[in-house]
Request: fold
Amino acid sequence: MRIAQIAPLTESVPPRTYGGTERVVSYLTEELVAMGHEVTLFASGDSVTKAHLDAVWPCALRFDTTLRDAMAPPMLLLEKIAQRAHEFDVLHCHLDYWPFSLLSRQPTPYLTTLHGRLDLPELSRVMQEFPEAPLVSISDAQRRPLTNGNFVGTVYHGLPPNLLTPQPMERDYLAFLGRICPEKAPDRAIRIARAAGMKLKIAAKIDRVDTAYFESTIRPMIDGDQIQLIGEIGDAEKPAFLSGARALLLPIDWPEPFGLVMIEAMACGTPTIAYPAGSVPEVIDHGTTGFIVHDETGAVAALSRLDTLSHDVIRKVFEERFTARRMAEDYVALYRRMAVKAARPVLRVV
Reply:
């Protein structure tokens, strides 16, 4: 098939460090190419891909220090999509609701994967205006608040099987990986580690909007010994970081849409101890790939049961459920269904 992957411009594809959506777009794009599809990636010019790259803006907006109007690049992106839509069998968007008005007025089938939280009242109003816009959720839990959304499927994220692998290391600390923000609750992770008498390493990004939270709540809790902040890390550093951990702590305080970090840990054979919010019960097999707990006391108790879990089994579950190939195959099935529904001949079949 001829497939357009349309990524946000905030980060490159893949991102240099943090960037869940762009990372997933990269994994999906490369796997579709490996499967023989003709893929065009609409993304920033510093993206790296084996697909055809249509660079709408020279670099990721996050790193463009000359940018003064942040809405101009996305506007150019939407116009480029409109100009080239007829070249594809399907348009796969990762831009939330921004393309709905434009793409609903043209004949090429399209769908949008929603990567964020959907429990915001404004989203329901948007969906009232676009009741036919085809949506893909990344967990069943994610879609529940948006009762008027036209969901055509749920596709769990996946990783290339050799991207993150278990490393032969001593596992002697707990890990926190992601963003430092109230909804990710790193303060809970710190309290859990302290109560358990274990070292915690925090590999995390601090967005500008969360600086005040970090300075007032998290920085005073970091002692550089038991609680260590090591900053943002990329894929190259993750295998060692996660393989050296006895467990990943995910004591979240928000409706997690998917939680890519859980399957990153799984790929390294590392169990996750998580609160049962959002997608967690769909991703974590309690007692097999980790433990689902309800409070800090439960998390500390779960840490004492880590020896009952098998690192090899955790890795095997990852290979069965969360690879990029499985993700790509699920999306191709949706693409073909969209093409049939639109009664359009597929320009190129693989």
